[in-house]
Amino acid sequence: MTSPSRILFSDLVGERTRAEMFATVLTEGPLSRGRLARHLGLAPSSVTRMLPPLLEHDYVRESTAPQGGRGRPRKMLRLNPDKHVVVGVKIGPAQVSAVITDMAAGVLARAEEPIGDRTPRTALSAAANLTRRLLSEVPEAADRALGVGVGVGGHVDPGTGVCRYSSLLGWNQVDVAGPLKKATGLPVVVNNDVNTLAVAERWFGRGRGIDTFAVVTVGPGIGCGLLLGGTLFSGATGLAGEFGHLPLDPAGPLCGCGRRGCVEALAGDRAVLRHVRDAGFVCATIDEAIGLARSPSGSARTVARAAFAEAGAALGRGLAGLCNLLNPQMIIIAGEGAASHDLFGPAMSQALREHAFSDAARDCSLHVDPAPHDLWARGAACLVIRDAVDGVLS
Fold it and tell me: Mean of the pLDDT values across residues 338-366?
């Protein structure tokens, strides 16, 4: 007799595999059943067995395509992009950005709204306003809306839609999904914003075809999204990937989380500014620090370049720990701070090589992607699409 745990495990594998089939058709299609099977490492018979729900629910369509030369025409699988529309939202400290996409995560319209403060009420009101605005801009979108995906910086529990803690926003135990669902009348999926970016990179960016990689964002905060075995890894309650709060130096500077010596306290924007100011130079913003570091000459240039190098070295030590623990194939450096990679990158790469165990550094390629706001919001939309396919096919 089959045990209940075995049945649940089999069901889980089936659902996940169908979602992976959908994502593969989305990112690689049109493609044949045989090619889909090869992409996923499945037997053709497995694809034939698991494909019907995708076709029956009209998420994927199969049509005959002519084949060059001799031979019978091949049947090709294509996504139905018009099945639904999805809204993706990124909540930041200064603005809320949003896109509305089709089922292929193609952007149909975009909008953003500056926010005067970081209170949950202000941010969620802006998110609801942008959602209504975008749904009104796309014909018949309100009738085809599948849901709203939201990315928030901090510890987000995707199971409850609650932001448990965000030092960047100053939030504690904020229900994001509930108020937004009430305001829009749509299902809401919430996750850490770097996780949404990791999904976007997996489907459309540097992570296409890569099963195990990390996205590390650099800027006011240091974030991390993890794709392990082709699946977004959030941990038990969404806390996985808080790389910025990995403790490197117990005697180090105070971090925004209240602890000392975190990667973020040593490698984030505030670390660079602190270094420059401690040397006696006036520097109000990270853009000013970048300007000093790129100036032709002078003592301010020397100090600013040393500040970025020091931050890069701290980041590299943290990345070495990430490589030693997870052995990723790739790390993508993204976020606002990626634009200054020329200043911190060399020291970061050197520290990574010096502190990584065995071949961990050589096994991992480094890439830089500044990632515009649209990509973050598009990734949030991807979460809705992914969850919807799981739900329909379960």
Answer: 95
